[in-house]
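Annex B, item 7. Sequence and structure tokens for protein A, then protein B.
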Amino acid sequence: MSKIKKVVLAYSGGLDTSIILKWLRDTYDCEVVTFTADIGQGEEVEPARAKAEAMGVKEIYIEDLREDFARDYVFPMFRANTIYEGEYLLGTSIARPLIARRLVEIANETGADAISHGATGKGNDQVRFELGAYALKPDVKVIAPWREWDLNSREKLMAYAKQHGIPVDFNKGKKSPYSMDANLLHISYEGGVLEDPWAGPEDSMWRWSVSPEAAPDSPTTVELTFAKGDVVAIDGKAMSPATVMESLNKLGGANGIGRDDIVENRYVGMKSRGCYETPAGTILLKAHRAIESLTLDREAAHLKDELMPRYASVIYNGYWWSPERRMLQELIDASQEHVNGVVRLKLYKGNVVVEGRKSETDSLFDESIATFEDDAGAYNQKDAEGFIKLNALRLRIAAKRQ
């Protein structure tokens, strides 16, 4: 093993990362710094401090990054109406660049010469963490235990924990059979019965939302105010980005909104089946497209739609800190200058229905032109004849040749 003096570990306080903490020390004979982030996963992160202290960690970072996450990562992504492979709202993908950034920053602050994470060698997260880290600190050493050790089964992990006195029952209550990841944008479920793509998810699996069948019989109406493409208020009440996400998660979850069951193509090459709850994201996507339909120029909107799949793949595959993502973001953000106004939505039994949209300053909808009634000369319908003939010219020439 190359000589490592200090490692910054992305530490959840759970069994796997606690084992990694001990393994790093034993394998590399190094000091370990732990970093635990609250990005809205809905669980207390402070207990991780006590667990790290109990394992003798001297430098412990516990940080509330909910606002950073919503403002600097989730909201910029939704300005592009981003969705991967037509369904996935990228809840796990978009959290990784923030964690990678802080791992690198803490490494710089503490003089660490390596970072470490608990992502497996089969998934996307290893790619996302490490591409981010290398983009921000090219010479950083990355230690990925799942690619190095032989603890490749739950039984071996449990035996290692027992051998080294690492507490196993950190979480009270029955352990979920699923591998889960949560933040302000979503909660994901993988493993267990979900490894069979024909098997339906169990009703008891879902944490954030009621089923559409069990949702209230009367709809919930909500108004979202947009400023430059971002939601800044709900029902007229100004809110921070993280508070917007928290509020919409509650409203959406209560109305059975945001569940999805997907088979996706991982960057490493395999197909993977996962289930997701993304209440706030589902609402944001619908509302943002509604306000853009009113305020965004046609060709600008169409260009954004053409670029979005590329932008989604860039994020999914871990290239948030790449030059191409930054270039795309500049274009996307420039398009949002006039995306201002209010969207009224009806939330009902798993559905998000747009009921109205308005923009006092930036609407491109001209009722005097669009009306089916007398437009008082605002639009000369005779102009359409020449427009059609010019656009039909190439079709007519081709038809004569045939």
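Protein B:
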Amino acid sequence: MTSPPYDLVVRGGTVATAAGRFVADVGVRGERVAALGDLGAPPAGAKVVDARGMIVVPGGIDAHTHLDMPFGGSTTADDFATGSEAALFGGTTTIIDFATPRRGEPLRKGLEAWRRKAEGRCSVDYGFHMVMTGAADKALREMDQLVREGVTTFKLFMAYPDRLMADDRTILRALLRTKENGGLVCMHAENGWAVETLVREALARGDTQPSFHPLTRPVAVEAEATARACMLAEVAGVPIYIMHLTSARALEEVRRARERGVAVLAETCPQYLYLHADRYDGPGAEAAKFVLSPPLRPKGDDEALWRGLREGSLQVVSTDHCSFFLKPRPSRPCKEPGRRDFSRIPNGAPGIETRMLLMWDAVQKGRLSLERFVEVTATGPARLFGLFPRKGHLSPGADADIVVIDPRKPHTITAAQHHMSVDYNPYEGKTIHGSIREVFLRGRPMVRHERFLGRPGEGRFLRRAPI
């Protein structure tokens, strides 16, 4: 007896790719997409999902998350179990997190620690960026080995002196090494010494409320660091990726570098598209929710970012998901106690569950085309981070990571109903004209009609190709 050609058929939806859209069935065999088109009557034994009137897109790829991240002797609110389940409810099936060794520790030790955090707990497929704070010869040799093992991206910080910050020599050495091994440097671009000076001066004046957080990390420190990072990449003659870009001025530095021939890639995040600096004007505890780095910007910068997404100046929308409780919890870092000293507020915000729907909302409101939505949430990060053609699109041979969006059913974002392990939501009360109906990871149903069907630990570590 021959087995049926498909185990799963997603029938009659509007399939969206980065290149176009069409009404088609999606046939899945095992873990891969087997065929698209009019597949006729479903074979006996195949599971059939009626997607007529629905939008069918590839599973989202969030290339910037912080799960189970140490902070102040504890960790973020979301670990790989809770964070990955929330990701699935939001239509994300792949994440790239950050393996962060202690300062002076071998890179491999950090990677092994983060793989232990994820294995057996993560419900989405996952990879890691490798955080680097130094570029001694041993670390450079480790970079080569890690690229061969599928860890092909390396994050360096221009911020956080004496903790994570890398000086220009370190950054240049890492960039030069990627010219040999095919890796890619990802940059947190803020001038750390300038920020530290402004923070100290603010505290000395008694300017301690959360409203002073954005004033100590002004646009100029992001623009300067972005320009410097681009120039170092120009010196090295290699690509560079700017993370969580927030402002028109920083984006202009990216454009100028590209005009000179520098291969600069950049992402932004939903918080910089939907939220503004006026959030810091609220009471201390409320403003503390939005203490993240870089901070939210005034209205106007968001419009520049939307234009950048439409025009291709920005390639990816990630979340920088870094969740901390607002109110105190036993042995867990939280934001509210720092409302009287903004420098003590843990920096970060939750977003792993809301990214896809927020960007779908942009499609509904005409800010992005459906094709561009697929590009910046799935196909773009797959290409840039060595996951394409396995991830990020729906075509024969690709992993059957499938998301079915119901464009007619509204979804209101609330902390009471989200699945992230945190007690607030930055987008509280926002209604999206659409909802995530079903999510499949490699052909396996993970979410259906707001029910989690998967099991913790079903995600797999992804070896990524050199850039």
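Comment on protein B: The CA atoms of residues 316 and 376 lie 4 Å apart.
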